[in-house]
Amino acid sequence: MKLIRQLGEQCAFLPSSWATLVQTREQIQELLKFDQYIDLMIPRGSNELVQYIMENTKIPVLGHADGICHIYIDESMNEKIVLPIVLDAKTQYPSACNSLETLLLHENINIEFINEMINSLRQHAVRLFGCDKIIKIDSKIEPVKNWAHEYGDLQLSIKIVSDLDAAIEHINTYGSGHTDCIITECEESQSYFFKRVDSASVMHNCSTRFADGFRYGFGAEVGISTAKTHARGPVGIEGLLIYKYELRGTGQIVDSYTGKNAKKFSHKKIKQ
């Protein structure tokens, strides 16, 4: 905040109170009442904080309540890239909203490779939960209590699915519309996944941790949204912009553009 104020002093057009630091929950509660003056809230912090703000204000909120991200491993995957991607997505920064929470495995993946993944995850201190089929493969895996749960920790759910459609159905049912990935060497499966998964970010053969404004080239991430309007996904400054329409006339009225002898709109681009 000190740096922001120092920068503000170099900008004569900014008022002295253009940036304010809110430090307590009581101050946030008071701030949420000012829907008459505040156009947008962009909460950054814990899931609890984001949920609280969404539920306690009339101000539009750009945010995501949950980051329930999935990776689906198709039967046509390249085994060499699977483990590095899964480990990065789960362990590189487990509390991030774009970290992996549920791993979906095609039922035709061989058991030896599944066991290799399980052992690697355990070696990285990941606590595993799973469906009945995965528990039959490894009895040490605990049953899943809730597929729509965001762990935000070194914990992971694993499910064996019958095919690509079953994976997509699971993601669209239990996911939060944040970030979901498919690992496959089949272009048709990748294209189908991208079209059918209803998430802000869909990925192919890479870690879900790439869902970030800086990594997307926006300069910096102002916020991230799982909403479908106005901004969606990682949002930079440009993603927050809205339109302002300017009409310059010489006496035109709408009535001239209706009826049998209505004038036509040209809709031509004009020079600025």
Task: Summarize the structure in short.
The chain has about 270 residues and is an alpha/beta fold.
Primary descriptors:
two-stranded antiparallel ribbon, 28% helix, globular, 272 residues, alpha/beta, single chain
Structural commentary:
This protein has helices spanning 2-9, 25-31, 47-55, 79-91, 111-123, 132-137, 164-174, 187-196, and strands at 69-73, 100-106, 127-130, 142-143, 155-161, 179-183, 201-204, 223-225, 233-235. It is an alpha/beta fold. It has a seven-stranded parallel sheet with strand order 4-3-5-2-1-6-7, with helices on both faces. Strands 8-9 form a two-stranded antiparallel ribbon. The two termini are 38 Å apart.
Which secondary structure elements does this structure contain, and how are they paired or packed?
Blueprint (H helix, E strand, L loop, with lengths): L1 H8 L15 H7 L15 H9 L13 E5 L5 H13 L8 E7 L4 H13 L3 E4 L1 H6 L4 E2 L11 E7 L2 H11 L4 E5 L3 H10 L4 E4 L18 E3 L7 E3 L37
Parallel strand pairs: 1-2, 1-6, 2-5, 3-4, 3-5, 6-7
Antiparallel strand pairs: 8-9
Number of helices: 8
- Cα radius of gyration in angstroms: 24 Å
- Classification by helices and strands: alpha/beta
Low-pLDDT sequence parts: none
The CA-CA distance between the termini, in Å, is 38 Å
SSE series: HHHEHEHEHEEHEHEEE
Biggest sheet layout: 7 strands, parallel
Overall pLDDT: 92
- The percent of residues in helical segments reads 25-40%
Question: What is the overall shape?
Answer: globular
Report the β-strand fraction as a percent range. Answer: 5-15%
Strand order of the largest sheet: 4-3-5-2-1-6-7
The total strand number stands at 9
